[in-house]
Amino acid sequence: MKILIASLQVSLSGSKGHLHPAVELALEAKRKGHEVAILPLPSSLGEEDTLQLQRANIQYISPPSLPKSIIKTPNELAQLAVDSAQVYLAYSSFLIEPIEFQKNEIEKILKEFKPEIILYDLLVYSVPLVGRRLGIPDVGYCSGLKLIAPESLLGLYTEIAKKLTNRRDKIVRSMTDQVHFHHMELLSKNGQFIFAPESLFASEHSKKFKTIFTGALPISKDRSDLKEKLFNLPQDEYVVLSFGSVLDPADFPQITRPIINVCKKIGFKLIVSSKKMAAARALPNHVEAYEYLPITAIITSAQAYIHHGGANSFSEALLLGAKQILIPLTTDQPIQAHYLKKLGAGISIEPRSVNESLMTEAILHLSNKENEVHTFIEKTRQEYQKYSGATTAIDFLEHIISRTIE
Question: What was the pLDDT predicted at 405?
Fold first, then answer.
């Protein structure tokens, strides 16, 4: 079977939470003997991400070029992401604006690669739309939990979708009438994968969009990067702080400063993923900052893993049994905060509530192994590790193709 995976890439090296699912799916497809390629859109992969695919021996198809004015830089995206009035411009820059510039070249790519099926991130429009026009079947996947979340958690996300709807629909419906959206997700008639255990997340609402709970995606050694091998874990007890590949903790001093102070008082080392802090001339002695951290290699041993609530960060932490403190910063991240609280497998704190007292309480609570939260962390970890979501997903694609052939 020949599979094309269309992965969301909002800017150079700005979409690790979307690339990692694509890589895991590609690795499983290769293990099962299928030919597979990853096409990131609308932006190209950065150098490190490209090397990651090369080391994993995964074919990488470069996306069609775009005018420089279309793609936002990671810094521009970060600024827009925390501005509720302007954040829709960030989504427009990678969801809608590139389509007219890329659709013709994408058609050429599909005709040349000749995939039997397209597996696409639900926030990538042009590949499945062109594919449907060419008669290529597709299946979607959601990197997060937006398809199963109660509408009450989608406030800002819903508002963004409303602002984009008219322009989006005008463009996509000129390409094909085979279009159905849930807010900003372009749905597939064959189903949408959710990479989470059904036992923990299923509800009446979750069946609404032909959702298929595959189980969590694994964290394969073949996906690891060179920096993981070069990174040395500290000898002291430590806390990890990361706000993903777009947001930088240095831009949130009202959150980062209390965390720095608390770690010093408690006596924990603080390891921060921050390009800006890594470039700083001087940091407190107990703080180490890096442009990029091999998160999955270091969070299991951390006394606390403080993050922004990105869907991939959340899922990997649950899979590894990390001690999470989730501070949702923008758009869909409150969804992960809601489910973490529901699972009892960590602590969620609203950004405006962060202070030294609350952070001290949260970190000490997680670092105390006698607290009940560790029972829920372990219970959730076991559920997350029961099934490989990648295997379930590729098995389903095989079923779709066999049904098509019949």
Answer: 57
Please give the Cα distance from 373 to 379 (Å, whole number): 10
Query: Hey, what amino acid is at 239?
Result: V
pTM of the model: 0.94
Strands 304-307 and 324-326: parallel
Q: Determine the Cα–Cα distance for residues 116 and 246; give it in Å rounded to an integer.
A: 34
* Residue 276 predicted with pLDDT over 80: yes
The boundaries of the domain holding residue 396 are: 2-217+388-405
Whether the predicted pLDDT of 224 surpasses 70: no
Can you say how many angstroms the Cα of residue 129 is from the centroid of all Cα atoms in its chain?
22
pLDDT 10s digits, 85-143: 999 999 999 999 999 999 999 999 999 999 999 999 999 999 999 999 999 999 999 98
Residues 134, 194 within the same domain: yes
DSSP sequence for 181-218: EETTEE--TT-EEE-S-HHHH--TGGGTT-EEE--PPP
Tell me the one-letter amino acid at 138: D
Pick from 78, 41, 19: which is nearest to 312 by CA? 19
pLDDT at 335 over 80: yes
Number of domains in the chain: 2
Do 207 and 266 reside in the same domain of the chain?
no
Sheet holding 138-142, edge to edge: 59-60, 35-42, 2-9, 117-121, 138-142, 192-194, 211-213
Task: Using only the alpha carbons of the chain, give its radius of gyration.
Answer: 21
Structure tokens at 297: 């290699």
HSE (side-chain half, CA atoms, 13 Å) at 194: 23
> Are 323 and 346 a contacting pair, CB within 8 Å?
yes
What number is the average pLDDT over the span 281-288? 94
Predicted pLDDT at 401: 92
Name the 3-class secondary structure at 342: helix
Q: Which residues pair with 7 in a beta bridge?
A: 40
Strands 346-348 and 324-326 turn out to be parallel
